[in-house]
Design brief:
Layout lengths: L7 E7 L3 H11 L11 E5 L2 E5 L8 E10 L2 E10 L1 H24 L4 H12 L1 H10 L5 H11 L1
Antiparallel strand pairs: 1-5, 2-3, 3-4, 4-5
Helix pairs in contact: 2-3
């Protein structure tokens, strides 16, 4: 099993045209602030983003691209646990390492700053592993796509 902290890749095919696929997804998904859990999100151009809850922004998520296939439409992308949070953490991780290096080399730091930034850097492998472990939480979103467009 490959290490996939940014979710697993998926592919869903449909005999419908891309515009019909987008319409079918929009018709079946919940509104953004619907209190019940279920697939909700947005479709902009060829891109789609789905998540479960209106209130839990750290839950399972799906990012995909809708494209024309030989006999219909194909949606490919990644589905996993808290993809937006992990992406932000991955972007900020090099900055944290840089700031940690600069603080230590300049000698301009307090112990609390060093512990917090150093702790976040040292916990990075655990954060990536946890995201890899929970990536299958987004399987219901992929099933929703399959059900909506077939």
């Amino acid at each position: 099993m490959p290490f996939e902290p940014f979710g697993y890749s998926f592919e869903v095919k449909s005999p419908l045209r891309p515009s019909d696929v987008k319409a079918a997804i929009r018709a079946r998904k919940k509104k953004w602030f619907d209190p019940k859990n279920g697939a909700r999100g947005w479709t902009v151009g060829p891109f789609i983003c789905l998540w479960f809850s209106a209130f839990d922004r750290y839950g399972p998520m799906l990012f995909g691209r809708i494209s024309r296939a030989d006999l219909g439409t194909r949606i490919t992308g990644r589905a996993g646990s808290d993809l937006n949070g992990l992406l932000l953490y991955s972007v900020l991780l090099p900055l944290m390492v840089f700031f940690l290096y600069q603080m230590v080399s300049a000698g301009d730091y307090t112990t609390n700053q060093l512990i917090i930034i150093g702790g976040l850097v040292l916990l990075s492998p655990l954060i990536f592993w946890w995201s890899h472990k929970d990536r299958r939480e987004a399987e219901p979103l992929v099933r929703f796509l399959r059900d909506a467009i077939t």
